[in-house]
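Technical annex B. To support the medicinal chemistry partners, we prepared a structural model of the target in complex with iron/sulfur cluster, based solely on the information shown next.
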Amino acid sequence: MKETRELTCIGCPMGCALHVEMENGAVVSVSGNTCPHGQSYAEKECVRPERTLTSTVPVMGGAFRMAPVRTAKDIPEDLLFAAMKQIHSVKLNAPVKAGAVVIANVAGSGVDLIATRNIDAA
Ligand code: SF4
């Protein structure tokens, strides 16, 4: 089955308009990109899109009650629900260091969930 998709590349502020031709779920051509990044972005976005997941987790005994967290890199969009389920089961103890691994290999994605802010003990 053939289909077409129109995307805007998010690789840089130019925001090139991408035209993607697909056949049987595979990308067969990409046009409109000004650099090779647009091609790889379109292929990933159309076949298995990825997103950076951001959330918060509770902190026990900290100056703040919640710590912001995010995945260290993008993870496949189809793992976001499983990752959020895992995040909801986590509680941290203060102090929390920015960059500390909160969940290693979150949802089996191969990517760690990390804290993004220092939280001192109360
Ligand atoms: S295709 Fe290249 S130049 Fe165009 S928006 Fe993407 S990264 Fe920027």
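Notes passed to the chemistry partners:
The helical segments are 36-47, 80-87.
Residues 2-47 form one domain.
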